[in-house]
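hi support,

uploading two proteins for the ticket. first:
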Amino acid sequence: MTVTETGTSTDVLAGVKIIDCDAHWTEPPDLWTARAPKSMKDQLPYQTVVDGMTLWFINGQSWASTGGNTIARDRQKVLGSHVVQPFEAIDASSWDVRERLAILDEMGVHAQVLYPNGIGFSSNHIFAIEDPKLRETVLTIYNDYMVEVQRASGDRLFPQVILPIWDMDLTVREMAKRIEQGIRGFTLSDKPELLGLPELPETYFDPMWDLFNESGTVPNFHIGSGFRREDVEASRQGVAFRTAKAAQAGPPPTVAPPSWRWFGRQRTLAVSACLAHVSNMRIVANLCNSDLFDRYPKLKIVSAESGIGWVPFLLEDMDYQYHEMVTTPEELGLAKRLPSEYFRDHLYVMFWFEKSAPAKLIDDIGVNNVLVETDVPHPTCLYPNTRERLADAVATLDSHSRRRILQDNAAELYKIPLG
């Protein structure tokens, strides 16, 4: 049987073990307090409910939200918002290993690559903690916990843990420790310069890239990973401002927000999400125009939650602009190959809700460069009816392409056992 007109049959996926390359793990309430040294127990992050909303606090100051959660208790997906509040209303599959494995079985997914949730998609929230000792402790406990999650999952959950990039010696030690513990990759800020650090190809980051190159572990750039904690807070306040009656009478913004300020909260979120999905064009274009892959030829880098429909345009655009703009010996000598050639050998992108791009653009992107995700439990996640929706998306592809996109690319990249 093939996929029907309603897209309800999943027989085209027979024998394929789907690997979800971007899902999120909501930080549980006792993540830090249960693992805190006695001397620091009252300094580490804890949850408090304020006006019906659960937030993370440090030393009496709000620090982070609980993140995007749209699956409420009893596996009910909530539309129209990006948060289920308070924390007790969130389904346990967002933060409990046994429950997450149960929902994976329900979804028909073999394994998941996990990213943080409320604390941001890289280490920027943690970098905002001023006390260096507290900052390092928060990061270490988080990574220790995610190693626990991976081990408890029986090779089905694979967290991409965070790095203390403000200290390169500490970064290398943390990488070596986590690689030894079986971690397959790390999530990074795509804009460390916003934190006052060097840009990614500068010599400051060489020890990190050396270890990525030699170990085969994966650097991941999730959309929104470059947001500073203060950017997230400003965005949260901006959404509230634009939903107030006084919004249209307010002062003109100094920087244009993603959406028009007279939009309501839901339309603001919808526009912001659309633009966030293609925000990784910046990191992909910069990586492919640099000499990073000449210096580190074994690097494999992932652009997470950014979709794939824009990729053929960017590949064509990068090469066209290169031929038109790059002419001097100095500029020509920076890198050895065309931007699109670096992409083919070193970059991965992924889709979830898209139908047009998987059906029409795989050859233009490269079947070996495409992964799939569900984004559970975030808004627009492929839940419920996960396998049916993926089957519909890849129905027109040949069996080799389906298997590469849904299973083999990720299994090879993240060294995920298929059983």
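and the second one:
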Amino acid sequence: MTSAPLTANKAGLLSCETCGLLAQPASVAEPGYCPRCGSALESRRHRSIERTWALVIAAAICYIPANMLPVLGTTTLGSTEYDTIMGGVVFLFTSGSWPLALIVLIASVMVPLGKLVALSYLLITVQRGSMQGSRERTRLYRMVEFIGRWSMLDVFVDTFTVALVQLDPLMSVQPGPGVLFFAAVVVLTMIAASTFDPRLIWDALSGAGSESIPLEENSPQQESNLG
């Protein structure tokens, strides 16, 4: 029977979330600061699960009007037409611009929904104390963080379109209310990914909290950067 792997928490070490240095905290109550970059050390982010859940739920609520309300209004010779995100995807596809339609569909519909599903899955598995697939869940979290920077593509497209296409009184383009909700979804999911503590994924596997090695007061910090 294989024993549980030795983790940093079980060994009484903390990883700096700024520079990644693995260091020994001064004490349990007051971990102190990173000897490399000076950032405050934290065993776990305070109320990480509750804050992440609140942000995910808020983003899920905003996701509905973001896709139901128009994101763009086009006025041509006195006639105004409003398009939702899916309406724009359908228009681009039927007009022959299927590569652009695919990009908008992925960046504006699938990516935000995928981030919400992924963060919800990570939160549920952490709360249930799941010990399966810890590596895969960690990779999933890193992927959510990585793709977050591309989630504002649709907002940027609308902004540039509004700025470039202003031919009053022949034609004008105005952003719709859906843009605000879509931007809210993007911002909320990005903050949710930053508030979630990925170290919680490994706590159930390592038995953190009950099997950690006690810290010695005023012990020297270990300037080791090993994982």
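thanks. also noticed: The two ends are 24 Å apart (CA to CA).
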